[in-house]
Amino acid sequence: MAGQWKSILDSDQLGVANGVAQLGADGKLPDTQLPDVSAAKITGVLSASQIPSLDASKITSGSFNVARIPSLDASKISSGTLGVDRIPTLAQSKISGLTTALAGKVDTSRTINGLALSSNITLKTSHLIEKVTSLPASGVDGEIINYNGKLYLWKESA
User: Fold this and answer.
1) In a domain? residue 143
2) Chain segment 48-102, per-residue pLDDT in tens
3) Close Cβ partners of 154 (under 8 Å, ≥ 6 residues apart)
4) Residue 133 lies in a domain
5) Cα radius of gyration rounded to whole Å, the chain
6) Could you tell me the sign of the dihedral formed by the alpha carbons of 119, 123, 128, 130, in that order?
7) Domain, as residue range, for 145
8) Percent of the chain with pLDDT over 70
9) Is-contact 155 140, C-beta < 8 A?
10) Cα(139)–Cα(155) distance, rounded to whole angstroms?
């Protein structure tokens, strides 16, 4: 039976466009021989090294996990309201306008047993017990009075 040779591969077609792909020394197709593939054709899970860097302007929706949000310098906070647990304890001198806001809230013209409210008051027992010039004829059970420098306690009869 007589036969003939049929050309099945032209070596000029190896590794060229519209030709036949050829494996590289690593046993893989070189990138130059791979066609463009639409993203819709990609399946599976990409590893982190396969994902290129992404500009932050490309992120337009969703929420970051708290672990992905770095600490923020206070100078970067320019709006909104801080929660009370985010505000440290402050000395009164650090609160601007406090003195003005409190001015007139306490009437400093009043006194307690002759002690003005315009400064610190030290109350002594003698300030709280009424001084009398004569012993009253009666009192309230447990009442204490100061008469001639001595303290007197009213005790109801049992």
Assistant:
1) yes
2) 888 888 888 888 999 888 888 888 888 888 888 888 888 888 888 888 888 788 7
3) 138, 139, 140, 141, 142, 143, 144, 145
4) yes
5) 47
6) negative
7) 128-158
8) 94
9) no
10) 8
